[in-house]
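FORM 12-B: Structure-to-Sequence Request
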């Protein structure tokens, strides 16, 4: 039965209320249909995504928000609530959804100017400064017994790691939960102390979601168990072991983009696991920088928010540091245990890349790996309590399939000339033709 516009409107208002309720600041003015989400409500781009995901969850349907939020390759500057209501109303009443038109063409990002060069390209000295703000990681003590093999996806944030994780989760021989954030800490108590704040609390959820899936527990049961592990100061290696035992014959894959930022964290994997395998996920630095800026990642990282570097330079140095560390780490690991994968190839020729990864991991290729939007529960693309809180890239939810156009979108915005020489060198070592 077709849904009425007034019902759509009421539900969307309700979703918006729930989202803004969680914010610290009260809204100055009452929100109406003419309110602009950025100008009046105070949205950042990440909030658009959270709003879109929560609306899809409310209507229990994928609506293809990418079409509304992205115009001519750029994310829109702002949208009124009315535009969102019209879009959802049209999509809900259209059949099939994928072919529905986009109502009320959203305002386009004004006169996108490709940036050809910058005045402050990243230098080796800047990178040295940047490395000082990275949280140190204590080495794990040598365990009496190593855990069985596991797989780690090593990449900076914004490399397509969430997409890769969810594709891998389509293989029945693998267990691929959302970001675990375990390897960086000695024990669960230290992990809690490091992540339990308003910016990072959602990063504690991946382990809870994994326990729910493995043990068939409710969120409450999984939280209770985690709390006991934290109170007892259980080592992170022992916690991994619990997950691995519960996963049975399935190989555990941990994709946590913060690991690669510190070489000491990577060394913990060799210390704690027997013959761990590593997927070195790469993406062109300009694509990563553009993605990083659009997602306003620095807003969620207080140390970086207060930094004097521009958000572009921070993004480039995060990219650089993660790849420098991973390349160095690769020199210390037998070559049959580390595989380089490029995001661009993953989205342009997914089957070829998935078959290559399966061969490397020693598992059988399954065609379901090419359908990342199927079996959402089994792939753990939701959060513990709310669909919008999956730890990982929320933009995954805006796409409806593996999108090859995402690989080169950055070319509209940046020339490779913006990159520092040190970045260009590392990009060339990763195989990019710069
Ligand atoms: P953009 O911001 O350039 O769009 P990560 O998960 O490592 O943070 O990476 C996020 C990037 O992966 C985002 O890049 C996001 O759009 C992209 N991505 C997520 N799902 C995708 C899909 N189905 N197809 C292509 N790219 C996808």
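FORM 12-B RESPONSE
SEQUENCE OUT:
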């Amino acid at each position: 039965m077709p849904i009425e516009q007034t019902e759509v409107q009421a539900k969307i208002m309700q979703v918006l209320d729930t989202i803004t309720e969680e914010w610290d600041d009260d809204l100055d003015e009452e929100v109406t249909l003419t309110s602009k989400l950025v100008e009046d409500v105070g949205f950042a781009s990440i909030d658009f995504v959270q709003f879109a995901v929560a609306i899809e969850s409310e209507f229990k349907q994928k609506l293809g928000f990418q079409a509304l939020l992205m115009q001519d390759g750029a994310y829109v500057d702002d949208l009124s609530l009315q535009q969102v209501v019209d879009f959802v109303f049209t999509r809900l009443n259209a059949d099939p959804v994928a072919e529905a038109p986009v109502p009320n063409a959203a305002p386009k990002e004004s006169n996108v100017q490709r940036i050809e060069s910058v005045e402050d390209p990243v230098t080796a000295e800047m990178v040295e400064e940047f490395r000082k703000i990275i949280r140190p990681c204590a080495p794990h003590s040598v365990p009496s017994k190593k855990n069985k093999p596991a797989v780690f996806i090593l990449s900076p944030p914004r490399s397509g790691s969430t997409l890769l994780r969810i594709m891998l989760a389509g293989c029945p021989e693998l267990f691929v939960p959302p970001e675990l954030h375990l390897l960086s800490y000695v024990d669960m108590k230290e992990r809690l102390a490091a992540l339990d704040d308003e910016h990072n609390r959602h990063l504690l959820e991946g382990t809870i979601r994994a326990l729910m899936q493995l043990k068939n527990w409710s969120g409450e049961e999984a939280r209770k168990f985690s709390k006991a592990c934290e109170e007892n100061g259980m080592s992170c290696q022992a916690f991994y072991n619990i997950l691995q035992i519960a996963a049975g014959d399935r190989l555990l894959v941990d994709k946590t983009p913060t690991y690669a930022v510190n070489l000491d964290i990577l060394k913990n994997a060799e210390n704690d696991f027997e013959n761990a395998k590593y997927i070195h996920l790469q993406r062109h630095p300009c694509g990563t920088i553009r993605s990083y800026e659009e997602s306003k990642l620095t807003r969620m990282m207080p140390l970086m928010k207060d930094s004097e570097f521009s958000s572009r330079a921070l993004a480039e140095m995060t990219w650089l540091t993660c790849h420098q560390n991973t390349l160095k780490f690769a020199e210390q690991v037998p070559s049959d245990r580390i595989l380089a994968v490029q995001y661009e190839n993953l989205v342009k020729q997914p089957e070829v890349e998935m078959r290559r990864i399966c061969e490397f991991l020693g598992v059988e290729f399954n065609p379901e790996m090419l359908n990342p939007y199927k079996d959402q529960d089994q792939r753990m693309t939701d959060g513990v309590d709310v669909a919008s809180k999956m730890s990982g890239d929320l933009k995954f939810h805006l796409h409806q399939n593996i999108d090859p156009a995402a690989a080169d979108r950055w070319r509209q915005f940046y020339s490779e000339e913006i990159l520092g020489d040190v970045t260009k060198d590392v990009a060339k070592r990763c195989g990019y033709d710069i």
